[in-house]
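Sanity check

After download, print the first record. It should look like this:
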Amino acid sequence: MTNTIKEILKTLEAMAEVFAEKNILKYMSLYSMNSNIVIYGAMAGEKWTNIEDYRKSVVKNWEHAPGMNVKYNDTIVNYSGNTAWLATDIVFVAQTESKLMNIHGRFTAVLTLENEKWKFIQTHFSMPMQPRPQ
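Expected structure tokens:
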């Protein structure tokens, strides 16, 4: 594993850490402030091209889950120059007031190297559809 891939994986792991901490300032520092940012969530209408609108949405979502952890599996990372991309299976383990939820999904991202730090410039979270019963 190259040092570059290790640095990219550090950014991904930092995302999991700040979700557990619910530290919005640290979380947002993982994202580029570039005006070309694009973020997709799993729900209808979850598309952001404005980082401040995305920040507000994250804060609102965190209010509904007092405890949250993120786990990654089968992560694939590649890069070329100042651009990197990754894909991983992801599990959000969220504790709400009434129950513990495991939300399985897929996460893809494009990162850019800015001031010697890898920053997310495009992210996409999706949940696999369950097959219809025959």
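If your output differs, re-run the checksum step. Summary of this record's structure: The chain has one domain: 3-126.
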